[in-house]
Design goal:
2-enoyl-CoA Hydratase, Chain A, domain 1, alpha/beta, 12 strands
Length: 363
């Protein structure tokens, strides 16, 4: 696949653990030799590709030492061994993108610019269409507030039309709630494509850079001038500890560009993209080979997460954002009848009665 589609699928799969559930033919036990071979291969991949070389050398050496001490001796099933390696990589490397899975049928993506076959493209399109391009909800709430619940950022080449259509449907609203509380990440190009809708035509913004160690290259992500629908109204972004990777980048990009207000809880804290790689005996590992570099902060959200502007429990974030928006509307409304209707709607939202509301258009 192309770099874009390959990266999207690698990150997406890494974040969705159920894609790598152990199959029915997994071996019931692992020998010491099996575990040693897997750890040696994992160490080689980390040393060759992990974005921080010094940490990579230390990680590989520590895993080898732990194996020699018998720390993995009781991990005699593939799942137990993969889980223990993942836990150790998180603890020792302090990088939440590290992940080890048992998937004997895994097929590695080409480590070059080989274009995808038509069959691969067609399958990806069907898979993403079956997931509604990651879009869970597009809705117009009472008070003329837009709501978009986006669960992933998949291949930009495929999801772009759906993103533009969703924003077009919401373009007449007076404020937008972008719900990323369950967004588990995906492709940086898809993030930049969505975010491009939130800046005026001709307003070019440098959103993010990603440095990749294997090729010693940095890819820059800017707003996309091909986007034709632009949304200029206020935006509130909902975040939670489940907001991860590309979902975090979207929130961070909008926050650092001062384009949105973030509401909820601190996010997951993973900013280093990479690839899923085979490490032998049916095991695969996600090794972060890159790191995000925000052009404004010159850092990213790794370890620390993206912090909300308005801190509330994630479960209450939509209600709080909705109330904040309506409160602003009430303050600016000059028509007495509409001001009264908005005031009553605000009271219902603040009381928690919004779920019972009649979602008909306010007059």
């Amino acid at each position: 696949m192309t770099k874009g589609m390959g990266l999207a699928l690698a990150v997406y799969v890494a974040m969705h653990g159920n894609a790598f559930a152990a199959g029915p033919d997994q071996p019931p036990q692992l020998s010491n030799a099996d575990r040693a071979a897997v750890i040696a291969s994992l160490g080689s991949q980390i040393k060759a590709k992990y974005v921080f070389p010094d940490t990579a050398d230390q990680l590989a050496a520590t895993l080898t030492a732990k194996a020699a001490q018998g720390d993995y001796a009781k991990a005699d099933t593939p799942k137990a061994f993969a889980d223990q390696l993942t836990q150790d990589l998180h603890a020792l490397g302090r990088d939440l993108h590290f992940r080890v899975r048992y998937e004997p049928d895994f097929v590695a993506q080409p480590d070059d610019d080989t274009p995808p076959t038509q069959e691969m493209i067609d399958k990806a399109r069907v898979d993403e269409a079956n997931q509604a391009w990651g879009i869970a909800t597009v809705q117009r709430l009472p008070g003329n507030v837009g709501y978009l619940d986006l669960r992933s950022f998949d291949s930009a080449e495929l999801v772009a039309p759906a993103y533009s259509q969703a924003i077009s449907l919401l373009s007449g609203t007076d404020a937008l709630i972008l719900d990323l509380r369950s967004n588990r990440g995906g492709e940086p190009a898809a993030v930049s494509y969505l975010v491009s809708h939130f800046f005026a035509l001709g307003d070019e913004r440098h959103l993010n850079d990603i440095y990749y160690r294997p090729k010693n290259e940095t890819r820059a992500y800017w707003t996309n001038p091909a986007v034709s629908t632009h949304y200029s109204k206020p935006i509130y972004v909902l975040i939670s500890p489940r907001t991860a990777s590309g979902g975090e980048e979207c929130a961070y990009d909008l926050q650092t560009q001062k384009r949105a207000t973030l509401v909820g809880e601190v996010t997951w804290g993973g900013a280093n993209p990479g690839d899923m790689l085979p490490i032998g005996h049916g095991f695969i590992a996600f090794v972060p080979s890159g790191r995000a570099i925000n052009p404004i902060t010159h850092t990213n959200w790794e370890h620390v997460g993206v912090k909300p502007d308005i801190a509330v429990p994630a479960a209450d974030a939509q209600q709080r954002a909705y109330a904040e928006i309506l409160r602003t509307f009430v303050g600016k409304e000059t028509n007495a009848g509409r001001k009264d209707a908005l005031t009553k709607l605000l009271a219902r939202v603040e009381s928690g009665a919004a779920e019972q509301m009649d979602y008909s258009r306010l007059k």
